[in-house]
Amino acid sequence: MSTHIPEDLHYQIWSWAQQVEQQSLPFESISRTTANGMRLRDRPQRKPLTEIPINPHTRKRKAGAAMPDEEEPRAGHIGGLLKKRRGRPPGSKNKPLAVVGQGLDDPGSVLSCGRPPSIPDLPPPSTSSAKTPSSRKSSSPSKSKRGDRTLDQPRPDATVDMPFLETCKPAVFKTSFRQLKAAGRTIPHAALEVRQKLLYVPKGLVPGELKAQYDKDSNTPRKSNDPLPDSEYQDPAQTPFTKQQLERLKHTVDEVCRKASTAARIKAHERQWGSIMMQILQEAESWPRERDVVLLNVESCSIQPVNFKPVRPDTNCALDDSARTADAESTKSWESPDNLGRMVDWVLALQLSEPDLHVISRAFNRCRENEQSLNQTLSYITRFPIFADIEVKTSSNRDPEVQLGIWAAAAVLKRRHHGWDTGIPMPGIVVDGHAWKWYLLFVVGEDVMMSGPEFFGDTSTINGIWTIFYRLHILIEWGSSVFTQWVQDEIIGWAKEKVG
Fold first, then answer.
1. Sign of CA dihedral 405, 411, 416, 421
2. Which residue among 149, 213, 389, 420 is buried most deeply as judged by most CB within 10 Å?
3. pTM score, two decimals?
C-alpha cells in the first residue's frame, strides 16, 4: 500500500533541504589548528571493540589449597599470584605478562614482567585448619591461671573457706572446748580464763539503779513501751559502772535502740549498722582504766609481709590480698567487701607508754624494715599490740569466720617469728545486724583453734544492749590486765634483750 504525500508538503521539505545545504560549510573549510597552533586530526581515530567472551564457569572461586599428593609448587602458581595483583608491575609497560603454564625458567614469564631473577620458590598455599600436632595449645591451664605462685607472688583469686584453712600452715580448725578435751588436747590456761569470764554472765544486766528511770519512761504518753520485767535488772552491788557512767550509758543505750530499730525496719545497708556499732565501741573506749585502750579502723590494712599469711605446704602458695571467700561473687573495687586483704574491720589495741615505745623503737632499729611492727601489718598501727578483732558481716555473704581465722593465723606467725609466746588467746567479735557474736582463737600445738560462735548481745532490746556493754567491759578489762602483762613479758622483754 503506497503512501501519498501532498504536493505542498513535498515542496516544503525540498525548500528546507536547500536552505541547510546553502548555510552549511564544507568539511575542508574547517580550521584544523587550535589557538595554540596544534594541528587536529582529519578524522577521529577509531578502534574496533573486541567482544569479551562470557565465562562458561559461573561457580564461585575457591581459596587455594594444597593437593594431597602435591609435593612441589605448581608451575602456574607464580602466574596466578601475578594475576591477582592490580595493574602492571613497575617497568613492564608494553610487555606481556606471564602466561599460565610457563615455569620460572622461562624468561618470557617472570623476567618479562620486570621481576628480579633471584625470586625464591614459594611454598604451595595451605589452609589455616591444617595444623600440626605440635602447634596445638595444651588444654591444661598454665601456672598463672592455676594460681600457683611463690611467696613473693601470692596466690590470686583463691577460693578460701574453712576447709581450705585446715590445709594451710598454720592450720585453722573450727572446734569447741568439749571436743578438744575429749581428744586429750591441752588448752592454754589464758584461753580457759577469758572464756569463763565471757561465757558466764548474769541474765539480767540492766543496772538496778536505773529501774526508776525506765519505769518513768514507759509510763509517759510519748513512751508506749512496756516496763522492763524485774528479771532483767541487775543487783546494784554487781554493776561494774559508776553512777556518772550510768547516766551517760543510759542515753547511749536508748539512742542505739532507736537507731537499730529504724535500721532493721528500713533494711539498712551494713554501713549503717557499722555506724551503730561504732557508737557502742566509742562509748566503751572512753571508760577510764589503768591502761589506755584504743579502737582502730584497719579496713585499709593488709597482712604484711606476705610470709605472715597462711601458706599451703604442698604448693608453697600464700593467700593474696585479692583472695575471695567461697561465697563471694566478685571484687569490684578496692573497698569491695569480699576482699580478704584487710581481713577484719576494727581492732581493740593497747596504747603503750612513751618509755615502752622508746625501747621498742631502739630494738626495731636492729631489725629489718619488714619486721618493725608489733602486729601482723606494716601500716599506721605498727606500734599498737592488738588484743581483740571486730568484723562486720556484709551483704556479700563474706564468711566472717574465714576473716578472723586468717587474721589470727597471721598473728601467730608474727609471734613465732620473734619468739614471743603464743599462749595468749585472740578474742573476736562478729556483728551481723542486731546480733553480736564472739569467738575465741588460740593455739594448741602447731595449729590455731577457733571456738564459737557464742552470744555476745543484741541491739534489738534494751537488755541486749546492756549485755553488749557488760561483755565489752569484761573484754577491755582483760586486755588492760592480762594482755598488758603478756606485752610486758614478751614484747617489752624481747626489746630490752635486743638492745642489750
1. negative
2. 389
3. 0.65
